[in-house]
Amino acid sequence: MLVSTQFILRNAQEQGYAVPAFNIHNLETLKAVIESAVELRSPVIIAATPGTIKYMGKEYLLHMIEAARKRYDIPISLHLDHHEDISDIKNCIDLGVSSVMIDASHHPFEKNIQIVQEVSVYAKQYGVTVEAELGQLSGIEEDIVVENSIYTDPYQAKEFVERTNIDSLAVAIGTAHGLYKGKPKLDLQRLTNIRKQVDIPLVLHGASGLSDSLVQETIRLGICKVNIATELKIAFGTALRHYLFSHPEENDPRKYFSDAIMAMKRVVADKIKMCKSLNRV
């Protein structure tokens, strides 16, 4: 069943767990995510970046999500991840997308607020969940490169949430997009201080590569949504390459995709267990 991301996150917040948001890229990766969530009875957030939207096409993606809604009985939401183009976000909302992240975090504070306000006002007319980010994660997210992270200021976070009327806030506390080059060091005291100032669900981006215990500590301190992308792509791509290397004569996608789907399903299952969202539906 298709539900709002706000519904999923509020339940997680009230019951002390988090829900993973898995980035998908095509039918096969969508199947891997949803099938694992169904098997573990977990709500799930399907995340689509601008690159995924461009690759799949909005209509194809929406129809695939609609098919999943009809077939499966777990809570599913479709979420636009790291979108910056306001007109494109509005178009997606008009087509039926029920959850968006407007990422204006690279702008100065007041400009960030101005952009997020515009999206929030439009989205609220349709009951659409809005996520925004304050601060910046280092690393690479598709074609966006951030050299140095900017941590979220707890008091700015309070003002930001109050003025934008967003439903969830992505925080920068030391995580990074992509794989970590060294041992990640998260500012958990900063997260605690943000939680004291902000009562909406908090979002952790850049969670690929973090230990389960560290992610679970962030959940205890207020994180309700955990974004997973890089580890999924690695599992899928590695299994696909291994199969094709072992079966150079194979040319049937239904066969060579099967191992990749299973490998990705295992990662999805691990992350659901990490977030403690299994057996919640």
From TrEMBL:
Protein name, as recorded? D-tagatose-bisphosphate aldolase class II
Co-factor: note: Binds 2 Zn(2+) ions per subunit. One is catalytic and the other provides a structural contribution.
Annotated GO biological process: carbohydrate metabolic process
- Keyword field: Metal-binding, Zinc
Asked whether the UniProt record includes Transmembrane helix among its keywords, one would answer no
Q: Which GO terms describe its molecular function?
A: tagatose-bisphosphate aldolase activity; zinc ion binding
* Binding-site positions, Zn(2+) 2: D103, E133
Q: Does the record's keyword annotation contain Zinc?
A: yes
Instruction: Tell me which PANTHER family the record gives.
Output: D-TAGATOSE-1,6-BISPHOSPHATE ALDOLASE, D-TAGATOSE-1,6-BISPHOSPHATE ALDOLASE SUBUNIT GATY-RELATED
CDD domains cross-referenced by the UniProt entry: TBP_aldolase_IIB
The residues that the entry says bind dihydroxyacetone phosphate are: G178, G206, A207, S208, N227, I228, A229, T230
Record-listed Zn(2+) 1 binding positions: H82, H177, H205
| SUPFAM superfamilies for this protein | Aldolase
User: Per its Swiss-Prot or TrEMBL entry, what cofactor is needed?
Assistant: Zn(2+)
Active site, per annotation: D81 (proton donor)
Q: Which InterPro entries does the entry link to?
A: Aldolase_TIM (IPR013785), Class_II_FBP_aldolase (IPR050246), FBA_II (IPR000771)
